[in-house]
Amino acid sequence: MGLFRCYYIWFYFSFIGRQVAKIGTAFEATNHESTLQYVFGEKFSKVFDYILIFFLFGIAVTMIAGAGATFEESYNIPTWLGALIMTLAIYITLLLDFNKIVRALGIVTPFLIVLVVLIAGVYLFKGHVSLAEVNQVVPEASIWKGIWFGTIYGGLAFSVGFSTIVAIGGDTEKRTVSGAGAMYGGIIYTVLLALINFALQSEYPTIKNASIPTLTLANNIHPLIATVLSVIMLAVMYNTILGLMYSFAARFTEPYSKNYHIFIIIMMVAGYLLSFVGFAELINKLYTIMGYVGLFIVVAVIIKYFKRKNADKKHIA
């Protein structure tokens, strides 16, 4: 089932991500509105616009709550303080130039790649379960259920990154550059996902009841690696929240205008407070819906692409 998710992630981010980034470049987009209008039309796009707006903020709140819990679990820092540290870090970064925000989003990637390859390499060769024996250990699952869960999971992952991909594409001058960046990024992400998936399967008896399986894998190699991974996990949360919050703010205000600076203060204070009042639990229950939303966007992008191509029109992406 995990491999099906990898295949769909590859498709979503390598092909569809490439198309979306190129559309963002063509419209010089600062938010997802123009891209949705191009794909769905002006009226129907508003439905997806409002849904994305709600979930951009909601998932960011969920991640702030998760950051607070991670600080407490890993470093014995109170949840409220951990969430506050993350909130302040995001707010300060949102004050920076967009190119600096993009660089901040990319800082963690090399470290994540090295650590994932290290963990996966160890367990691929020394795991308790060989790849040939995985099917005997991992509970048997319906292939169709695996395909469906992979589709929805990919839709969720794509919908979370959609607005950020559009904004980064909009800041790029050439469509070939933005498209290639999204495509290669999708390939790298898929390879990492496949590696860690194999590693988890090779240690399935050990990690099947773990709350954070990857952290368990790291700790079994060496506690220091687990500590480094926990730092990287917080950095990944930081990346996700930053991308979501910037996209949310850019949808309502002109980036770096007076209204933008006022808005991000209100947004971050509200996000911090809502992370303690059960709002995150509500969003968790609605993750599946977001997967369907992402799937609809993917299908719409594909239809738009082939309609314009078959009509022999000069298509944006």
Give a quick precis of the structure.
The chain is mainly alpha-helical and 317 residues long. The protein has a single domain, classed as Up-down Bundle (Amino acid/polyamine transporter I).
In words, what does this structure look like?
The protein has 317 residues and is mainly alpha-helical. It has helices at 2-27, 33-40, 42-75, 79-94, 98-126, 134-137, 143-170, 175-202, 204-207, 213-221, 223-252, 258-274, 279-285, 287-310. It has one domain (2-308): Up-down Bundle (Amino acid/polyamine transporter I), CATH 1.20.1740.10. It contains 14 helices and no strands. The chain crosses the membrane at residues 50-71, 77-98, 105-126, 146-169, 181-201, 221-248, 260-280, 286-306.
The number of helical segments is 14
Largest sheet: none
CATH class: Mainly Alpha
CATH architecture: Up-down Bundle
* Count of strand segments: 0
Task: Tell me the layout of helices and strands.
Layout: H1 2-27, H2 33-40, H3 42-75, H4 79-94, H5 98-126, H6 134-137, H7 143-170, H8 175-202, H9 204-207, H10 213-221, H11 223-252, H12 258-274, H13 279-285, H14 287-310
Helix pairs in contact: 1-7, 1-8, 1-14, 2-3, 3-4, 3-11, 3-13, 4-11, 4-12, 5-8, 5-11, 7-8, 7-11, 7-14, 10-11, 11-12
Which key features would you list for this structure?
83% helix, mainly alpha, 0% strand
